[in-house]
Amino acid sequence: MPLHNISNRQELVSFLKNKCVDIRKMIVQLTVTAGGGHVGGALSMTEMLVVLYQHIMNIEPSNPKKPDRDRLILSKGHGGVGICPVLCDAGYFPKSEMDGFNQFLSPFGMHPDMNKVKGIDMSTGSLGHGLSICVGLGLAARLDKASWRAFCVLGDGECNEGSVWEAAMSAKHYKLGNVIALVDKNKFMIDGPVEQIMSIEPFEEKWKAFGWKTTVIDGHSIEQLLDTLENLDPPDSQTPQCIICNTVKGRGVSFMEGQGKWHYGGLDELLEKQALEDIEKTR
Amino acid sequence: MAGGMSYNIDDLQDLTAAEAYGKVLVDLGKEYPEIVVLTADLAKSTKLGVFFNAYPERSFNMGIAEQNMVTTAAGLALAGKKPYLSTFACFASMRACEQVRTDICYPKLNVKIMGTHSGLSMGNGGTTHHATEDLAIMRSFANMTVVVPADGIEAAKLAQASVEHNGPLYFRVGRGFEPPVYDTMDYDFQIGKARTMAEGSDITVIACGVCVLQAVEAAEELADENDVSVRVINMHTIKPLDTEAILQAAEETGKILTVEEHNIVGGLGGAVAETLAEAGVPCKLKRLGVPDVFSVIGYPEELHRYYGIEIDGIKKGVKQMLDIPVDDEDDAH
Ligand SMILES: Cc1ncc(C[n+]2csc(CCOP(=O)(O)OP(=O)(O)O)c2C)c(N)n1
């Protein structure tokens, strides 16, 4: 039940690509409004979120709590500036609601709050919780004989947390084919490259060893995301699925791409202008 | 003082509390080869990166894995090292809570835990990153010492004192934009011994951390504007608590207002209340802090104002306790 009614494949790809450009611009502008934000990791997961919310997930933005909807848990909860534009664009709330983003008493902060932001399925911000939430959701869906899925978006640095692997173990144990993990593998955490700070490799093999059906794709390729997510095993299948998305932190902005220091940052007028220009060029 | 080091205001005034602490720790590292430092992907944010640069072989970034970091520190301590570890206060006290209690406090190991971005200092980071429970949690662990330095100078003093302090110690500092209270290192700092910042006889304000400066300034304004004599106590150590200072204040001023960047449950206010109740001294008490809610977002200064733990909120609290009419201006929040 996509949010669009495009049937032609090529048209769909270019529609989603264009959305990503618009969303990235909103991310940059929100980062300015917010007085700083986790912009690097917001820009790396744009295609993943756009494809999920626009095309894959069964959702109804005018009825955000629809019981049989697919859920998405942003386990890398510092991606508030990354997910809120996607939800806004999907129609959960008007853009003007984000005017005071991050400011005093605003419902919108760095880390999204499910009781304040429509479309957010769980309040997150402390890393390593999201996949366990999805295990709980997946079990509940099984009990209710429901066919919705629980998607989880994780950071690669986040996968340092032991709790991620406890969740991975239990999703396999309970045969939760309705749990889908997407890892935004942008190769950086706060203190530097993941491989230098706390290595997670061999990453694909780890997920496989935990019993997950695991695929590695280019997380910026709309085509690869579509191919993978349209061909997931059905929710009543017995194996949880992990999609490792190779991405670039700060994607789309020349001075941020692959620069660890843009994990969190603020933008002055000049940088904002440059960032918006860079992003427009990706259209 | 450890190392006989002394710093003057010029060395420290441009540093945040975490930076001041880090600077002293680097100096202590020279003298104490057994000092080791751990962090969980927050070397830069918690400012202990300076130690990583100075002594890479004794510094361990454990990645985003706080529980593993805390218990690894316990292992290092068991083998005779002096581990100092740092992460955000919320994660030190809550993510790795049982590890702190069972692996550090229970065996009484020599591990120093630095919780940065404490209280409301993470402002628009929101509830997941606010730490308004850490004092209550850490204080409830036997063998634990809990300190809240008022500023960078006091953090530096604490760093010096901590190295010869035996056993577990938790302390919290803010994100780093807090103005200083002290203008000299030349004062007596002892863990467990409160400092009187201003003498007074009508009421006592007991504060810790960022609230100390606010209390000092509120007291000055109250003296000028209302002719009220406010005693201000910097209760930098929440445990072991300086009960003598509290009981003396109760006896001499009869009214106590506590101020903390923490839930009013279980922290400084809670500790003072326990002391007063058990001693059975007649004393009016009011606790200022976060009123047992998950705090809203905003810049720290806005939140301090919202929860009334800055100058105006403290003035209002004092006036209420002294039955002085509160005017609209005080009511701004
Ligand atoms: C439990 C926990 N520890 C530490 C942090 C602080 N923190 C926020 S983001 C971050 C780095 C995350 O890196 P990664 O998961 O790779 O995210 P991305 O690069 O996609 O932004 C850290 C350590 C946190 N939010 N939660």
What features would you describe in this structure?
The complex is a heterodimer of chains A (283) and B (333). By secondary structure, chain A is α/β, with parallel strands linked by helices. Chain A has a single domain, classed as Thiamin diphosphate (ThDP)-binding fold, Pyr/PP domains (Rossmann fold), CATH 3.40.50.970. Chain A has ten helices and five strands, in the order αααβααβαβααβαβα. In chain A, helix 6 (162-173) links the parallel strand 2 (150-155) and strand 3 (179-185). In chain A, helix 1 (9-33) packs across helix 4, helix 1 (9-33) runs antiparallel to helix 10 and helix 3 (46-56) packs parallel to helix 4 (80-90). Chain A starts with 8 loop residues before the first helix and ends with a helix. By secondary structure, chain B is an alpha/beta fold. Chain B has 13 helices and twelve strands. Chain B has helices spanning 9-12, 17-31, 49-54, 66-78, 89-95, 97-105, 134-139, 152-162, 211-226, 243-253, 268-279, 300-306, 311-321, and strands spanning 35-39, 59-61, 82-88, 112-116, 145-147, 169-172, 195-198, 203-207, 230-234, 237-239, 255-263, 284-290. In chain B, strands 2-1-3-4-6-5-10 form a seven-stranded mixed sheet, with helices on both faces. In chain B, helix 2 runs parallel beside helix 8 (152-162). The interface between A and B is medium-sized, with 28 and 29 residues.
In summary, what is this structure?
In chain A, 40% of the residues lie in helices and 10% in strands. With 283 residues, chain A is α/β, with parallel strands linked by helices.
